[in-house]
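Notes continue from the previous slide.

Worked example: a multi-chain complex. Inputs as given:
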Amino acid sequence: MMYLFNKLIIWFMPLVPKFIVRMVSKPYVAGSKLEDGIRVVKDLNGRGMCATMDVLGESAIRLEECQEAIDEYLQVLDAIVAEKLDANISVKLTQLGLCLDKEACYQNIRQIVAKADSLNIFVRIDMEDSAVTSDTIEVFLRINQEFKRTGIVLQAYMRRALDDLVRLSALKTNYRLCKGIYVEPRQVAYKDPQTVNDNFGLLIDTAFAMGSYVGIATHDEKVVWKGLELIHRHGLQKDQYEFQMLLGVDEELRQIIVAAGHKLRVYVPFGKNWYAYCLRRLKENPKMALYIIKAMFGIR
Ligand SMILES: Cc1cc2nc3c(=O)[nH]c(=O)nc-3n(C[C@H](O)[C@H](O)[C@H](O)COP(=O)(O)OP(=O)(O)OC[C@H]3O[C@@H](n4cnc5c(N)ncnc54)[C@H](O)[C@@H]3O)c2cc1C
């Protein structure tokens, strides 16, 4: 039944007029221009939160397309300095050619990271679906050898996540830990929500024990609580971890975390590819459509 519902949503979404998709996605996407991203980040900064800026884009089909994404990210870096934003950037490697040519992708991300590093700006490499997990980690390790102001994402639903974390933590890797958004087969990902939450806790605990900085990226209050418990148990200072949330999601919880004095970073996606991005995310995970429909009718 759910399968059919999901299929229906995937089929139906491209028929929904663009302005409705824009209206519905408005809380989650800052806008189509860099100015939109800047405006939203300034507003968040003014309310005690920092940000990570993401230029929305599709997985590159031709290597020539990557230069556009690189140029856009270089502009974002200039804007962070010029506008004195409290923000870093998040980048997806498939946008920079990971599925086409790994060496070219490395050179592409290196251009962005080298400039960011010269401006003291941190770069987070997002994690995508399981087909590219190993390659993403490999490129990250190469980049991180040269530039320490870089970090990666591990997904708690992945069965391999703990092994990856133990291996990477030897380098005191800076993590974003999240549940994981892509639909993966049972062979590679835990399916039971409680098991994913338990694994999330195990990853945070292990990363803290190994001395890593962790961005706890969730809107699930149970995971937030687990994070707080582990922060307390490891006796961490406020500069040894942060919480992270997506733009437009559970602003009440966001406020509660900020009011309690914890660092909170908001993921701010923007860019001219917002429409293709929204449709792709829905195809990857139709559960997202439910969030959108709920948001449309103000259902929490
Ligand atoms: C800062 C940040 C960066 C991320 N980066 C990555 C990444 O690099 N790779 C990756 O695979 N995943 C990434 N994710 C997504 C993550 O993996 C989860 O899919 C997503 O956060 C939902 O999981 P949750 O922990 O919030 O728990 P859930 O149990 O899924 O959600 C808890 C509650 O939050 C609300 N909620 C959650 N997500 C949304 C949404 N999108 N819109 C509206 N309401 C929502 C729902 O009401 C839900 O009941 C990121 C998430 C965050 C917060």
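Summary box: The pocket of flavin-adenine dinucleotide is lined by residues 126-127, 153, 155, 176, 178-182, 217-220, 223, 244-246, 249-250, 267, 288, 291 (CB under 6 Å). The domain at 30-270 is CATH 3.20.20.220 (TIM Barrel).
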